[in-house]
Amino acid sequence: MAALRSLEAADNAGDADAIAAHYAEDAVLHPPRGSAVRGRSQVRARYQDGLAQFALEVNIQASGVEIAGDCATCWGHTTGRFVWRDERTPTAFRDRYLMTLRRSATGWQIAHLMWCRSDP
User: Fold this and answer.
1) Going residue by residue through the chain (120 aa), what tens digit of pLDDT does each one get?
2) Which of 5, 22, 51, 105 is deepest in the core (most CB within 10 A)?
3) How far apart are CA 109 and CA 25, in angstroms?
4) DSSP 3-state assignment of 2?
5) In terms of Cα–Cα distance, which of 78, 56, 55, 68 is closest to 101?
6) How far is CA 40 from CA 56, 65, 83, 116, in A?
7) Using alpha carbons only, how large is the chain's radius of gyration in Å?
8) Contact 87, 101 (CB under 8 A)
9) 57-80 residue pLDDT tens
10) In this structure, what are the phi and psi dihedrals at residue 17, rounded to the nearest 5 degrees?
11) How high is the pLDDT of residue 1?
């Protein structure tokens, strides 16, 4: 799915604006720890805060995609690492995700995204 490749590129570029553009205006981000983040502007702020602390090196792999009209569900895993700006040792991650998307005039946008750590 082209939307995933574009999101991956925005993540790896560290561009909070480009990342947020992948989310619907009323999107909900469900991080594994902490409260849900609601709305594109809050999603952007969360990424901006994170990207001030680390650079992302991420690979997004879809295991499955189901499309029904203007709605889609995508699931899979991400692998990569956080490269800390304070020179700590990079932290590797492997997560599973579940994403719902809506087709808009500009393409597919994330409506909901949730993820959790995956066993190595």
Assistant:
1) 799 999 999 999 999 999 999 999 999 999 998 899 999 999 999 999 999 999 999 999 999 999 999 999 999 999 999 999 998 899 999 999 999 999 999 899 999 999 999 875
2) 22
3) 9
4) helix
5) 68
6) 20, 23, 25, 21
7) 14
8) no
9) 999 999 999 999 999 999 999 999
10) -65, -45
11) 75
Q: Which amino acid is at 44?
A: R
The identity of residue 66, as a single letter, is: E
| Reduced DSSP (H G I as helix, E B as strand, rest coil) percent helix, strand, coil of the chain, to 5 | 25, 55, 20
> Can you tell me the distance from the alpha carbon of 98 to that of 92, in angstroms, rounded to the nearest whole number?
20
Alpha-carbon gap, residue 92 to 25, rounded angstroms? 30
Tokens of 3: 């939307």
Q: Which residue has the tokens 């490269």?
A: 83
